[in-house]
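---------- Forwarded message ----------

FYI, see the Ribulose-phosphate 3-epimerase record below. Original note from H. follows.
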Amino acid sequence: MIKIAPSILSADFSILGKEVKDVEKAGADYIHIDVMDGHFVPNITIGPLIVEAIRPVTSLPFDVHLMIENPEKYIQNFVRAGADIISVHTESCRHLHRTIYQIKEQGIKAGVVLNPATPVEMIRDVLTDIDLVLLMTVNPGFGGQTFIPNVLKKIEQVKRWKDEQNLTFEIEVDGGINDETAKQCVEKGVDVLVAGSYIFNNKNREQAIEMIRTRVSE
Ligand code: DX5
Ligand code: ZN
């Protein structure tokens, strides 16, 4: 069963709690939370305060995507705020292995993220240590961008390594996901689909999620 993680970046922030409840009711599996610092990416978004504020409104796991410099400094804050999975970019971690264990020591799941131009070899030596591999299918920073098809062969490679070593981490994609690109990714071995604008721009979130589920199972 494919998991769907609506990215609240495209939600209406004036009624954020209601938006989170709405996608939970619509069948979401995770709530994807995009944290940006204006340094690692050219945009500023959500901090631990917002995460804490929406924690009581849902029981869905919070999938926190840190697009920030020095992520190791903020892990504990996001754990306290209610994160269930924290993913860090290889491009912002000088000591990736150490940061992964800093996350796991907090008793939550750890993920690693790769930008579209970063080769998958960067995570090969930590594959046995992680719970999630997030492959960016756009350059991080904004919602509503176009899917980069070159990432498909990276999914294939990560899936091959996963099967060869009998590993259980989930493969997630993020950026430009709609029913069509979702299908392409799932065919290559993706387990979790992040979708922001595709879900939140549709007034009927249940229909949007259902569209993805139907299309990927065709
Ligand atoms: C991009 C974020 C994504 C974004 C996806 O930097 O990491 O999670 O919200 O938005 P869509 O699905 O609209 O491309
Ligand atoms: Zn994201």
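H. also flagged this: The chain has eight helices and eight strands.
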